[in-house]
Amino acid sequence: MAREDSGDRLLRRLVLMSVLDGTRPSGTLEWVSPVVPVVTQAAVGAGHWSAGRRQRALAAWASAAGFGLVAWGLGTEAPTRAEAQENIEQHKDLWRERGLEVPATAPRTETSMDRHQPWWNALSALASCSNVVFGVRSGLRNPRRLTVLAIAGEAPTAVFYVLRVPRAVQRRRPRIAAGSALVAAGAVARLRAASAEPLR
């Protein structure tokens, strides 16, 4: 039972590592998702700058630059989906050779999702574009001051990108590492700006 638990734990860790690595967008519609935060944060920064909230603007622009570097890194440094899946399977085979029990993966067959992938990509791109509108609106309004809710809103982004930095450094992906550090710094700077420069 302990061996089985350790196999599941290793697999969860491997999946987390592949999420931190990210995958290379394979088509135009798949590029929408990594590019949307760049546009959103750049627009939020411009709005804050024009309203005289300099710290908030600089924080948003730091995040925009970070998201831009991450998107560039995903396009040039990240593995494709097939390479990421192959890497997971190689690790699972290695663990099986060492006597660990890891869940088997069913053979890859074409599913209804695969057949409708272009439609799903188009819907995802449309949802991402609508996120620009809501993200800009939310970024310009919230947080009004530094609150627990504001911290809780920024924490997931900061934690994810802080975890991504050492992983990208380990995998020799400098653009993703630098971009992730900037995104995390932007999240922290937004919180500092919220305490120093509340909205009027």
Keywords:
elongated; 8 helices; mainly alpha; 0% strand
How many H/I helical runs?
A: 8
Report the biggest beta sheet as strand number plus sense, adding barrel if it closes.
none
**How many β-strands, per DSSP?**
0
User: H/E order of the elements?
Assistant: HHHHHHHH
Which residue ranges are poorly predicted, with pLDDT under 50 across at least 5 consecutive positions?
Answer: 109-113
Instruction: Estimate what percentage of residues fall within beta strands.
Output: under 5%
Q: What is the helical fraction, as a range of percent?
A: over 70%
| Anisotropy-based shape | elongated
What can you see in these coordinates?
The protein is mostly helical and 200 residues long. Helices cover 79% and strands 0% of the residues. The protein has 8 helices and no strands. The termini are far apart. Residues 109-113 have low confidence and may be disordered.
